[in-house]
Design a protein that fits this description.
The complex is a heterotrimer of chains A (193), B (238) and C (379). By secondary structure, chain A is of the alpha+beta class. Chain A contains five helices and eight strands; from the N terminus they run H-H-H-E-E-H-E-E-E-E-E-H-E. In chain A, strand 3 and strand 4 form a beta hairpin. The longest helix of chain A has 17 residues. Chain B has a domain of 149 residues. In chain B, a hairpin with a 2-residue loop joins strand 4 and strand 5. Chain C is α/β, with parallel strands linked by helices. The chains are: A alpha+beta (193), B alpha+beta (238), C alpha/beta (379). Chains in contact: A-B, A-C, B-C. Strand 8 of chain A pairs parallel with strand 6 of chain C, so a sheet runs across the interface.
Amino acid sequence: MTSALRRSQTTYGDTALAVSESATGFDSQQRALSDSAQSLGQHDFVDGLQPKRRLFEVPDVNLSTAEAVARPATHVKTIPQRTTSVLLAEWHGQVTEVLAATFIAQLKGRHGEAVAGSEDIAVIPIEEVRESDRDLLQTGAFFRLCIAYEISQQGNRRRYTEVVFRRLPAFRREELEQAQAVAREIASELRLE
Amino acid sequence: MTPEQTSVSIVLVGVFRPALFTLDELERNQALPATDLAAAKYRALLLDQVVSFALPWGLLTATADRLIVEISQVPYVQGLDLLSRLIRDHAPGSIVTMFGINMTSHYKFPDVAARDAFATRLAPTSPWGGFGRLIEESFPESGDKHGGLIHLTMRHANVDDRESGWIDVKVEPSPLIPNSQGVAMFVNDHFAPAVSADASRVKRATSEELLSLLERIFDQSIERSFKILNSVVSGEAA
Amino acid sequence: MNFDWNSLGSAPADDEFEVSFIGPGFGECLVIHVGNQRWVVVDSCVDTTDSDRRPVAERYLRALGVHLESNVDLIVASHWHADHVRGIGRLVAQCRAARFSCANALVQREFITFVWEMATASASTDGAKVNEFREAIHHIRERDAVITWATANKLIRRWPATQSTPEAVIHALSPSDKEYTLFLQEVAAARPTATSAKRSASATTPNLASVVLHVSLGTSSVLLGADMEVHHDRLRGWSAAIDSGCQLALPPAGVLKVPHHGSVTGHHDEMWTHLLTPGPMSVATPFNRQPDNRKLPTTADIVRLSGLSSALFLTSVARNAPARGREAAVERSLRERGIVIRDAATPIGMVRLRKHEGSDWRREVFAPALLQSQKEASA
């Protein structure tokens, strides 16, 4: 394999891009950013945080950054650590009962050796649930139990376990009304005796 | 072989209003949990063109024709849930015309020779005649003098769980693994309706169907991608 | 060890009744031969070792050489809880000659609406716990089949006597009228609302709306207790079902499908004294989807049931093995975090009873089902 990847892409030019292009694929995000932000140069961002200038006149009230620009210099959001993870095992879970210090859940294995495809029962300490998710912990709630290696930008590996509750979208009036209409039709057509 | 790192992205193609995906808008509509909101950090902000911010577990980017979430921390499904909430609850006027579920994994081989052996298994030099011999003769060289496979993409087109689409798998050297020992592998699991992807012709019902399909198929797609990559790297049948 | 579906012998003779109890530790299924190769299936579950997740009734009947398409006359869903309807959609689709029966409330517009509304969440919630029932209704509607709704004091189906077989009759003893009303009220309260987060369906008291069945096979009777539970209100739960049985003056049953997996919540003294012969044969289907100390039946349940029955059978073992084969790093992580995970799947077992009119039940136990206890016959 060659390490001169970039030079080769330039040489191949449009042909390579046409062959490898996928609207939803790997380079989609980068192209999206570069296509849309072409007129913004590197120096248009203050420490990579907020743009110094905007290309269009928009009312201040619509500028979400107006407030941000007006913030004191000390009000700086922490840049999140860019780490990645390697998944060892993952279960899809549903809470069946919440007790004092633990909760009981039914699990379906999603990934991992002797995990994928399994059906299990789990007893999980409540302290494993993030503080920010505690209000989601109730009977019937869905979560994912993951065991993974976290790899920092420096290359350090750390095994960790995560219980993350799912934040699902809401039922929508439109789809509920549609379901009601279908149900009305079905109920009227059923032959009962 | 276990990858050194894996990330997943979901790319929605369609019609979106980037201005709706600013942090202030999301906060107003409670579309993001408070902890994510507090830790979010803009990467790009140009209203009506691009909004992009980093979250503790990934990245979100919104442009006029794409909504992309990249998930670097498990569970990957949190990216799906975010997109679902954003489209269904926060910006229901959005239209989705196609979507892709992508996995990127970086593998580290024990040494350059092992990496070359892998590349040669995928793309043998012998069918390339004299040119292939020249490439093979360059294997002991290091750096820019080391020739071989640059990238390879294979497409599975007749996938029976979608109206239209494909599964592409691409292999190329990994820029993240040092000493030329790394290989990056990408899976693009692409879904589209049978009709043209022209947004003006995709009805809202199709957009809704695509989103429902994404929600149904996501876990399966991720697991399939894991298996594909594992079988390509190991050379074993999936 | 996987259940050997090919070791179950052949179909019963035309003049031989059969009641088979199949239970894998999550769910149950009863398969009844009412004579002349006419079959009834009550509830449905799947063998989790089967990668195709076929309903056990399908596997069993096909193993016997029975034609599902034409020989199954009736499929009953005693209630809509997940452990009783797994695979029922597929079963309804295949048994094209079968009528479907369920509690009256389940085929009213209110419940159908609830099911279809909850199903809008199914993509995110693994079926929202309504997909099986929905699939069954879909197939019924598709072939314009008739649904026999069940309520207390209702005749569900009768098979007249023939030259070789006596009459077979199935009556429903529940749910009561009051239960019907309360169930629909609970369903109305549980319906999803716009802007509430998507979730799967959960019912508050589905067990009280269970369909208890009395099956007369010639001069023998079987009481199928479903998941019925007791309630202090005489018009609800077991009290109401017992009153219904008494009103119908049905003959006491000599065989009992123990209600609610043997739980004490399903125990009503009058069921034993009013609806059953003294010392019936009892069959319990364990429920294992709980931590070790909460599985059903408990040790105390087994003692209680053994004392009341001439013989007590269990269709499976009430224990979960620790899941095996996981990576060492995964096991270490679980241990470090105090997370206990047990394999929920327990092996399928079966208890089969067959008899000719006028003779005793011939009992067969297919491991891991077991004869838990038996009393010596008094002189």
